[in-house]
Amino acid sequence: MNPVYVILIVVAIIIFIFAIWYISTSNKLNRLVVKIDESLSGINVALTKRYDVLTKMIEVVKLYTKHEKETLFEVIKLRDNMSLKEKSKANQAMNESFKKINIIAENYPELKSSENYKTLQQSIADVEEHLQAARRLYNSNVSLYNQQLVSFPTSSVAKSKGMAKKDFFEIDEIKKNDVKIEL
Q: Could you give the dihedral angle defined by the CA atoms of residues 17, 22, 23 and 26, in that order, rounded to the nearest 10 degrees?
C-alpha cells in the first residue's frame, strides 16, 4: 500500500476522532448551559411563589385577625352596663353576631387567627426552603459549567464557541431583605 494513502487514512481517522470529540464536548457544554438556564428559571419560580404565597397568607391573617378583634369588641361592648331592655336588644344582637360567626365557622371551620399565624410561619419556612434549594441548584450547575470551561481540552472548545464563565447567584442588596410582613 502506498505510504501517502496510509498517511491520508491516518489523518482522516485523526480528523474524524477530533470531530467526534469536538461535537461531543460542544454538546456537553450546551447541555450545561441549558441546565443553568433551567435552574435560573427555578429561582424565578421560587421568588414568584414566595411573593404570591406570602402576600396572600398575610392578607388572610390580617383579615381574620381583624374579624376576630371586631367580634370580640362587639361582644364586650354588648355586655357592659346594660339595662334589661338593652340586654334584651344585646341578646338579639349577639344572636345575630353568633349566626355570622357560625356561618363563617361553617365555611372555614379550621380558621382561627392563631392557626393562621402558624400556617403563615410554615408557609414562610416552606417558600424560603424552596428558594434556597433553587439557588443551590443554580450555583451547582454554574460550578459544573465553569469547571468545564477551565479544564483542558474542553476550554479550547468553549473558547472557539465564545463561551464564558457564568456568575454564581448573588442576590441584589434590596432582595437580601426578606419580605416585610406587617400584620
A: 160
Sequence length of the chain is 183
Q: How many CA atoms lie within 13 A of 140 on its CB side?
A: 11
Dihedral sign from CA coordinates of 33, 34, 39, 40: positive
Average pLDDT over every residue of 160-177:
74
Average pLDDT in the chain:
75
The answer to whether 113 touches 68, Cβ cutoff 8 Å, is yes
pLDDT digits (tens, 9 = 90+) for 91-101: 666 566 555 55
User: What nine digits make up the cell of 51?
Assistant: 411573593
The answer for residues whose C-beta is within 8 angstroms of residue 75's C-beta and 6 or more apart is: 94, 97
Cβ distance 102 to 131 under 8 Å? no
Concatenate the DSSP letters of all residues of the chain into one string: --HHHHHHHHHHHHHHHHHHHHHHHHHHHHHHHHHHHHHHHHHHHHHHHHHHHHHHHHHHHHHHHHHHHHHHHHHHHHHSS--HHHHHHHHHHHHHHHHHHHHHHHHSTT--HHHHHHHHHHHHHHHHHHHHHHHHHHHHHHHHHHHHHTSTTHHHHHHHTT--PPPPP---HHHHSPPP---
